[in-house]
Amino acid sequence: MDLVLPGLGLTFWMLLVFGLLMFLLKKFAWKPILTALHEREHSIDEALKSAEVAREQMAKLNSDNEALHKQAREERDQILKEAKEMKNEIIAEAKKSAEEEGKRMIQRATEEINKQKQNAIAELKGQVATLSVNIAEKLISNQLSNNAEQQAIIASQVNNLNNNQQAIA
User: Fold this and answer.
1) pLDDT along the chain (169 residues), means of 10
2) Single pTM value for the model
3) 81 lies in a domain?
4) How many domains does the chain have?
């Protein structure tokens, strides 16, 4: 069993060297190691806080961006609505203007037709008067002795007059 248990001198020297090593480590190594660990812990905490702030800012920017998109969609819808209303107004105005212009054109055409009709009637009256004068002139100039010949000339002139009236109508 002596092999398993260390001797008293060996134990003393081991304790002395261990104590000396602990003293040296405490004096020179523990402070820089603990300082470095604290700095590292502090930088990790700062990085986590920065990441949290960045995440909050990103969430805020996303919500602001979503609000801007919503506002842009609403403005687009409003502009489209106004454009449709304007289009409908323009179409209605064009239809009204076309109807009014059509009515004016019909009225002018009707007036022109009436005017042409009046001119035709006046011309017809002039032709009837001329024909009547011609008939009278022919009758007088020929001094027809026969009543039958006068009737034939009158009938032929009336027939010509009827043909002229039908041609005008």
Assistant:
1) 72 93 89 90 94 94 92 94 94 93 93 92 85 76 65 80 72
2) 0.41
3) yes
4) 1
